Amino acid sequence: MRTSTAGRVGQYAALLGYLVFLAFPFLWLVSTAFKSPRELGSLHPTWIPRHPTLDNFRQAFDEQPLLRAAGNSLLAALAAAVIAVLIATPLAYVMARQRTRLAKAATGWVVVSQAFPLVLVIIPLFLVLKELRLINSLAGLVLVYVVWALPFALWMLVGYVRAVPGELEEAAAVDGARRLRTLVSVTAPLLAPGIVATALFAFITAWNEFFFALVLLKTPEKQTLPVVLTHFIGAEGVADLGPLAAAAFLATLPSLIIFAIIQRRITGGMLAGAVKS
């Protein structure tokens, strides 16, 4: 009993330490966003601003086109998430249900492709998009985001599809339902949590992505929010810390709000109520 209690206390302590480790950067970012320039230059920084101010937010919007950049990021992220899910869902079903060599090879490619560094693919990718005349366009950026998110989206959805009992589809077939009807009426509703989780992953990946947007987008009118955030850093590497923290805080809000809204669907039981008792 003592060993079990000590182990449980150790687990909770480790979990608490991990949560503190994750929360520290965000809490410090929020604190910095509301501090005055005098407090930012203090040799003895504090967690809670002594004189909270919104001047950093006003200055951030005055210096950079944050709303336009956020609109570009939102458009690219939403389009990439929707397209990636529409492509990955039927492919994941085939890969999960068809245990052929081709399906196994596709699964292996999904795993291996995640190891490719961005620098390795950016040059051939740039040349391909140049031939397609998609350089400096949000359409080209969305295409890149879809291709980049698709392997991991497939890997996620394959696991969800395999968790759906095949007996449910067999029962539907016995009742006279065709394959398409079975997919739409039986399998697809059970995959809803997985589809939502995959779409969230694709959205957050595209929303936070910086490297591809920096290389592919040239004109200021089409730049995304992560690229615009770098404009708060001067030519000599000196950051305008207050406005940068304020803009970065606003940039993290969409991901946090979306996750807070749909977290119950993600963590809910995928097969709850699927089988009647």
Rg is: 23 Å
Helical fraction equals: over 70%
- Stretches with pLDDT under 50, minimum 5 residues: 269-277
Order of helices and strands: HHHHHHHHHHHHH
What class would the helix/strand composition place it in? mainly alpha
The major sheet is characterized as: none
- Total DSSP helices: 13
Give the overall pLDDT as a whole number: 82
Straight-line N-to-C gap: 37 Å
Overall shape: it is globular
How much strand? under 5%
* Count of distinct strands: 0
Overview of this protein structure:
This protein is mainly α and 277 residues long. It contains 13 helices and no strands. Mean pLDDT is 82; it is low at 269-277.
Structural key phrases:
globular; 13 helices; disordered C terminus; single chain; 277 residues; 0% strand; mainly alpha
Question: Could you give the topology of this structure?
Answer:
Blueprint: H1 2-33, H2 37-40, H3 55-63, H4 66-97, H5 101-113, H6 118-131, H7 138-163, H8 166-174, H9 179-190, H10 192-208, H11 211-216, H12 225-229, H13 241-267
Structure described in brief:
By secondary structure, the protein is mostly helical. 74% of the residues lie in helices and 0% in strands.
